[in-house]
Structure formats: C-alpha cells, structure tokens
Amino acid sequence: MTGTPPTTVTGVRLWRWRRNPIRRHSDVVEAWIVLLIWAVAFLGGVLAGVVAAQAMDSAFAARRDQVHSMSAVLTDEAAKTPPGGSGNDTSQVWAIVRWTDTDGSVHTGLAKVFPGAPAGSRVIVWADRAGRIVSPPPSGAEATLEVVLTGALVAPLAGATVWAGGRLIRERLLVRRLAEWDQEWKRIGPEWRNRSGGKG
Fold first, then answer.
1. Which residues, in sequence order, are CB contacts of 52 under 8 Å at separation 6+?
2. Is residue 198 part of a domain?
3. Residue 94 forms part of a structural domain
4. Where, by residue number, does the polypeptide cross the bilayer (predicted)?
C-alpha cells in the first residue's frame, strides 16, 4: 500500500501546535490566527447573512405598511399589443385607470394591465399614502425567496472578506518568520561552516 500515512499528514498540519526545535514564536501566533480566522469567517459569515436577511425582511415589511391595494376601473380600452410587441406578446401594457381612495377622493393614473382589456374592466392597483400608483410589494413567496438569497449571498462574501484579511496577516507573519530564520542563520551559519571545514 503506497501513500503518506494519515498520522504523518496530520503531524505536518499540526506541527505549529507541538514543541519542536524549529518552531518560532511567530509560528505559534500564526497557528492561533489561522484558527481564529476560520472561526470568525464561518461565524461572522453566518451572522452577516442572518443580519442581511433580517434587514431585507424588515424592508419588505416596511414597504407593505406604506402601500395598499385597491380596485380601479380602466377608463379606456387597453392597447392590444405592447409597444414594439407582436400580437402574441403577453406582456402588460400601460393604461389609464380611475379609483376612489379610502377618503372618497377620485384619482386617475397609469397602471399595468393586460393587452386588449376593455374599458370598465376592474384591475387591482397599489398606491402609496400620497395616492400615487406604485409597483406592488413582493408577494410572500417572492419576499421569502429574496430574503433567503440575500442571506445566502452575503454570508460567503463576509466570510471571504475575513479570510482575505487573515491571509494578509499571515503573509506579514511569513515575512517576519523568514527574517527570523535569516538572523538565526547569520548567527549559526559561520559555526556550521567552521565545523564542516574542520571535519574535512
């Protein structure tokens, strides 16, 4: 059976955690930083995703509180095809509608309706508190999907940001460790060469 034994692989990965002659203080610091980075990247990513999802859900709730639906009447027959569309196009078209607000005032405005809808047709429109027609808020399923997608996108981005920051810290530690090894070699290098020369 060939290959590196699992114990050897584990030993290589965990050498910074064990006492050994070549381990430096910066190696121990790096080991803790790596552990901290992975923990923060995972937990921070999850937390960021949850916070973003909750913020999106709150925004949808606020939007639903600021608009209301009502029944409106189409004042004229709607265009049979959207501008630039074909007769088989099922996209909606803009048309003038009239509705009575909750305070009894009559309003008119543009709303999306199905092509060819006859005058007098009833349509549901959404209006804000100022009486202006606005786009409908996301439905329950749409809102849930957007909330979930927001959390799912933010979580890995936040984790990747933390990981990238940790990567920069590790690179600085590597430079420091190489400098320490260089200083150590300057100290013991001459002695090593002298001993080797004496034996020769």
1. 150, 151, 154
2. no
3. yes
4. 31-53
Domain carrying residue 122: 68-136
Distance CA 36, CA 29 (A): 10
Among candidate residues 91, 98, 93, 89, the one with its CA nearest the CA of residue 79: 93
Q: Sign of the CA dihedral 173, 176, 177, 178?
A: positive
192 lies in some domain: no
174 CB neighbour count, 10 Å cutoff:
12
User: Can you give the length of the chain in residues?
Assistant: 200
Question: Is residue 33 a part of any domain in this protein?
Answer: no
List Cβ neighbours of 170 (8 Å cut-off, separation of 6 or more): 30, 33, 34
Note the pLDDT tens digit of each residue in 35-61.
888 888 888 888 989 999 989 888 888
Looking at the 3D structure of the chain, how many domains does it have? Answer: 1
Question: pLDDT tier at 6 (50, 70, 90 boundaries)?
Answer: very low
Query: Does the pLDDT of residue 7 top 50, yes or no?
Result: no
